[in-house]
Amino acid sequence: MTPIAARRRTAFLAVGAAVLLLAVALRIRGATGSLWLDEVWTFKLLENIGHSAFDVIFGLPHDNNHHLNTLWLLLVGPLAPEPLQRGLSILCGSAAVVAAGLFFGKERPAAALFAMAITAAAYPFVHYGSEARGYAGLMLFMLAGLVLVDRELAADAPSDTRRMRLGIVVVLGLLSHLGSLHAFLAAGLWAAAVEARRLRSAREGLRSAFAMFAPAAMMSGVLGLCLAVGIARYGLHVGGILLPGEGGLLHGYGMMMAYTFGLPTEWNPPPVALATMVSTALAVARFRDDRRFVLYGIGILLLPLIMFASAQPFNGVPRRHFVSAVFVALMAADLAGRAFERGGAARLAAAVLMIGFSGLQARQLETFFIYGRGDAKGALAVLAQSPHAVIATTFEARDGVMLRFYAARERTALNIVSDPRRACASDPLWLLTEVDVPLAERALPCGPNGPEFRPHWVDRPYGLAGEPTEIWKRVDR
Fold first, then answer.
1. How many CB atoms lie within 10 A of CB 124?
2. 441 pLDDT tier (thresholds 50, 70, 90)
C-alpha cells in the first residue's frame, strides 16, 4: 500500500468511526422518554403467554409480535429504564449504519461514507433505531442481505458459505419484522434481473436467483412452519388501529419520503411521492448498466406498485414504506458518491447538498428530541395529583393502555373508566382524550346536565409515532 493510499484509508476509517459514534449518540438520545402505544402493546401481549422463547415463537401470532424485539423485552422486563428496553434497537440501528457503508465497500469509499452519514442522521432511521420494535433489526438484516447478494453477483463463482450466511440473515430479518419480506423480495428480484442480463436469458436468471436463495428459502420455510403452528393453535391477530386522516398509498409513501429528505411534513405527500418516483426513474435510466440501480428501481418503484396491486392493508401509514426509504437512502448515497468522485463543481455540489441535508435533519431531530413519541409519564404525573378522582377516556384502546402500563410501573393507583355510561354516572374529574379527532367523538354522552370540561394539559408527539393527547379537567359549576 502506497503512503497516499494508507493516508486515505486512515481518513476513511476515521470519518467512518466519527459517523458511527454520531449514530450511536443520536439513537441513545432518541431512546429516552416514554414508551408509546406499540411498544407498550408488546408488554401487554406478553401478559397473556408464558415466559419463554418457545411461547414468543409459537404462542403469540400477532402482527405486533416482532419476535427478536419481543424476546428482548421479555428479557429486560417492563420495569427496566426505557433506553434499556430500546437497547436492542439501538444496537441494530447503529450496526445498520455500518452495513450501509459495507454495501458500497472499498470500491466506492465516498458513497460508503455518504450512505453511513445518511442512515446515521436521517430522522426515520434514528426514530426506528431507537424504538422498542422490530424496524431497526429489519433495516440491519435487510442491508446485510443486500451486501451478501451484491457480493454474490459480483463474484466470479458462487459461494455456498455466502449463500448460507444469506439464509441466516433472511431468517433473522423475518424474526425482526415480517415487513423484511418486502426487502428480500426486492433482493430476489434484483438477483434475477442482474443474472438474466448476464446470462442473456430470463429463465436462466430466475434459476440462478433461486439457487442463490435456496438456503434462505429452506431456513425461512422452517420458520414459517413454526409460525403456522402458532396461528393454527391461536389464530392470527392484527392489532393495527387506523389513525384519523390516513390516506392511500401515495399519502403514506410521500410522508415517509418527506421525513427521509427532511422536508416539511405540511407539504402535500402525494407530490413528494411522485417526485421521488420520477427522480428514481430518471436515475435508473441514466445508470441502467450499473447493477445497483436495478435494485433501486425495484425497491423504490416496483415495491409500492406490488403493495398497491396486492391491496395490502395500512398502505397509507408511512412506516409501511420504511423499506423503500432505505433504498432511497442508498440511491442518494450512490449519486452523491458519484458526484464527489468526479471532483470539481460536482464534488462541491455534493458537499453543499449534504450540508443542506444535515441542516434539514438537524431541524427534524431537534423537534423529535423535544416532543418524542408522547409523554405518558407526564400525563400520569398530572392525573396523579388527584389520586382518587375518576378519569374518563373515550380512547381506552390507546390512551388507556399506556396510562395503565405506566400506572402499574410507577405503582400509582388510577381510577380509569372507559365505558361512557359509567363515566357519566361517576362524575369524573378528568377527561382523557385525543386532539386530532372531531370534538363530538371526544365528548362524553352525558346530556346537557353532564359535567363540563376544559383543556388542562396537552401532549403533541412528533413524527412517526404517538398521537396528540389532551387532558381536560371538570369545571365545577
1. 27
2. low
